[in-house]
């Protein structure tokens, strides 16, 4: 129904998580490299190597991307992905060594589980070791392990977020894929119907609240500090420059806006990386426009495949999927 980002040739994905601590990380590998860009739209980001992706800067190939829980602590997981790639002799050749280029982004999942346990170099290495071009787990997997949705009515009323993926294949063989760890302050909605899939859920009454209406009723809402952020990657087997990849990442943010209400808040560090693994020259507007569609589907997949854990209800529980 959804497809996966690994449908894009040259892309591998591996997950590692700790279900007791409710945290994890996801390694997306591009063993033949890929031209990458990034768009950071939220105002509370935790990132690594994003300056390198600026089109004015030198290096234009990445070899992996790490998405992680653990807030800023989780940036350590990217070092494990680097270690794995170095062992495979994959990286930027600087003469005396090959340096793997692995940008990263993190989300905040310290509230539930054990806040003293975060993704580290070892977990990142293990996720990279598991990376393959075969189907991978979504929902409570990898960076989505401790992700939650709908915190405008307080943390006690949140629902389970998770890791999601989707892809779209064109007749000419071009494939656009997305992977995303969904952990927003706001609701997640079905963009085709407007249905609230996950959001503030009052357990006592079984009522699913509307975050936008909460904003209307309280123009000074309390969004719990540091409890959010949605992070993702779009990939395509096409030929793009760094500037064009950056534009694709920017356009893919529309997928967030179509499904997450509100998105890009002061307390969300919403970030999207875009990676082109090479191939045909396709107009940027085609890739970017479709990337937004695929990202929206990946967000839906994350919510639909998530399972309740630690007393946090999931969409499938409410809808008896």
From TrEMBL:
Pfam families: Peptidase_S58. Belongs to the peptidase S58 family. This is L-aminopeptidase/D-esterase-like protein. It comes from Neobacillus ginsengisoli.
